Amino acid sequence: MKSRSSLLALLALASAGLTLQSPSQAQTTSLISNGNFETDANTDTWPDDWGQLKVGGSYQGENGNHFLRMTSPTAGTMVMAYREIKVPADVKAVELTWRQRVSNLKKGKQSWFDARIMMNWLDDARNKIDPGPPAPNVSRDTNGWEEKSVKFLVPDGATMLALMPTLFQVESGTFDIDDISLNATEAAPLEAEAKNRAEAQAAKLVQDAEKRQAKAAANVGADGSLLPNGDFQLDGNGDGTPDNWGGGKEGEMSWEKEADNRFLRLTSPEAGKMVMLYREIDLPANMKALELSWAQRISNFKRGKQNYFDARVLIEFKDAAGKKLPGPGAPYTQSNTNGWVNKNTKFLVPEGAVTMVFMPTLFQVESGTFDIDNLLLKSTDEGELRLAASKAAEEAKFINVEAEAPNKAKWPSELRVEGNKLINKAGKPVILTGVNIDSLQWSVRGERIMRNTLVAVDDWKSHMIRLPVKDDYWFGKSPDQKDGGASYRQLVDDTITLAANRGAYVLLDLHRFRAPNRSHIEFWKDAATRYKDNPAVVFEIFNEPHGTSWDIWRNGGFVEDKEAPADEDAFLSPEEKALNAKGFHAVGMQALVDAVRGTGAKNVIVAGGLDWAYDLSGVMNGFALEEKGGNGIVYSTHIYAGKRDWQNKVLVAAAKYPIIVSEFGANTKKFAFMPVESQEDAATWVPRVFGFIQKNNLNWTAFSFHPKSAPNMLQDWDYQPTPEWGAFVKRALAGEKFPDQGMR
Q: Would you tell me which of 62, 234, 408, 658 could form a disulfide with 634, CB atoms 3.0–4.6 Å apart?
């Protein structure tokens, strides 16, 4: 018979619906097998049904009684036994009883680093379910063996209890445990107690919140600000730290003075370090909207590894219980400022908010100094903000386009090249017209890609969309990607299906510049395999070749140092720019064709010429690409307002091959990347280029169906066309014919 002591522990663990009771009240049918540790049928000197501990566990016996012992081998080591116990579906509450003995215990560095029994509820898939059970704990030695008992409710969906007796990173100690039993018990009393405690706690939270709100209202400054001493000038005790503001970690936060003006300075001491001022501000009751204004100065700034590792002001809200509520977006800066600049932001206060958390931050930057002054936090009118929020919600709903299942009956016909024409499966000539759906070449998530595709095809009547993509994003190599590129590839899939279901084609453009390298071969092996059976997909194997000979363009070779930056730099990381500047080995356009055909893909291939894909003359001078068993090759040209000699650079190849003008366009503002004096005004150039394209039966995809990617054909995200460019594109897509005005 096992010896037992009668010591009872009365602990209050209200939030989990918990009471401690005498073990004699527990029911007798335990859900835990071998809870007394007496069975060792295989004589391996370890109790049956209990797993070995990673460290610190032993199977002990005293006077014929066996028990589990956990001993801390070194300070700070976690010593844990782990057991999962099935709980029948009809059990709504349980009682856990056990005996314990704790000796030589010295708590660890935190107050909860002690001897405890941790528990988690799990569902059938072994996902954790909240609320969790209590964690009965001991923070000092016991007087020999003592008996313990705790009751708690079983949450909906829970099917298993994970039981974890633990020495939680203690400095030292021994935790002996025995006679563990888990029995069903009556739920109603526990539910009533939990309800009463929750109601009492809620009432106390309301009372505390009202006191805090009243105090906050009384402390509003004469200037209406909720932030006292926001200009940091008051320092009553003369210690160099402004009143109502604490000090910070040396080397990260300091109070600086210039002339007689004091301000806050945050400094990054090392790359990747988070530097933050944390301030909680209680809000008066019925505060609906706030305006935060401040002065800032940023210097020696270099952004961190992620796009959002910058200088920003984080803002959060908490309710009376300290639970985080939805907050506004963080105002951020990603470059040095020209001295001090004034900033402000307005935002709604979420329902139930009692506290605002204000956190100016250097968010894991490489380097930088963030100076802050003249902080004001005031109430502001909520009407304009609610109207903007409503508009944003409607816009978000509009932007969202659900992915569609493939409807192959509506997909366009497979294309192939015949002479200098594209023909469909019925043998009829096809002229492809459409727009560039930009942003996947600079954003891993894209910007309204699905909605833009829908508008371009349904409303603007595009027969093709050109979809620029980046191989690094395709393979998930951006620091912003954590899924290996799966969501990026899925978005491309969904966009292709959306267009194909409406009978439109997609020109998949690898949006790279200068000359292809080996990584681009890998991209096309993967992408061509993915889309080789899709009749709607055409492959543009490389966006804009330039700066090489025609031999290197076709066959590959070493590409020497780049002499000056060009417009592709906008799409390259600093590392890619540095690599380009040293020169590299190009594989040649033929290698990309071979990579596509090597997958068995017969899709039509599009290949751009030299001079940023403008010049096709070399194709007619012995450097045409060799087709190997596919549906043919179309040549691409990019025509912008500074490009001349259309006859010898474009039409020279149109006599023998199909041509697509896969980029062209102009805005009132002329391009900076080509001589301004060489660029014809959009007013005359746009109708001229459309007349040229239509007269010569060229395929085309205008650039760009985006309000901020020049030459932009959209004024804003309301899809209204720019008058000098987008309006002409929309007219041409609707079937309007433009007169021939001659060539440049």
A: 658
Structure tokens at 35: 């809870």
Residues 6+ apart with CB under 8 A from 587: 516, 517, 518, 520, 521, 556
CATH 2.60.120.260 residue ranges for the chain: 14-186, 218-237+244-399
Cα dihedral 246, 250, 255, 259, rounded to 10, equals 160
Which of 183, 180, 173 is CA-nearest to residue 68?
180
The CATH number of the structural domain formed by 428-733 is 3.20.20.80
User: H or E segment at 603?
Assistant: none
Contact 653, 644 (CB under 8 A): no
Question: Would you say the pTM of this structure is higher than 0.85?
Answer: no
Indicate left, alpha or beta for 391 from its phi (over 0: left) and psi (-120 to 50: alpha): alpha
Average pLDDT, the chain: 92
- Are 415 and 427 in contact, with CB atoms under 8 Å apart? no
Strand partners, 637: 661
Q: Enter the CATH code of domain 218-237+244-399.
A: 2.60.120.260
**Closest listed residue to residue 463, CA positions, set 701, 648, 296, 231:** 701
Q: 441, 458, 452: which is closest to 714 by C-alpha?
A: 452
pLDDT at 574: 61
pLDDT < 70: residue spans in the chain:
1-28, 561-581
Place of tokens 């009668």: 6
Task: Work out the widest C-alpha separation in the chain, in whole angstroms.
Answer: 108
Reading the block at residue 76, the tokens are: 């700070």
Given phi > 0 = left and psi -120 to 50 = alpha, else beta, which region is 93? beta
Q: State how far Cα 182 lies from the chain centre.
A: 43
Per-residue pLDDT, 575: 59
Name the packing angle between helices 589-598 and 518-531 (round to 10°). 30
DSSP H or E stretch at residue 60 = strand 57-62
Take residue 250 and report the two structure tokens written for it. 């040396």
Whole-number Cα distances in Å, 379 to 226, 283, 314, 372, 628: 9, 10, 18, 21, 70
What pLDDT is attached to residue 29?
83
Measured between alpha carbons, how far is 608 from 597 in angstroms, rounded to an integer?
18
Euclidean distance between CA atoms 703 and 507, whole angstroms? 13
Please report the pLDDT score of residue 100 as a whole number.
Answer: 98
What class, spelled out in words, does domain 14-186 have in CATH?
mainly beta
Q: What is the pLDDT of residues 294-344, one digit of tens each?
A: 999 999 999 998 889 999 999 999 999 999 999 999 999 999 999 999 999
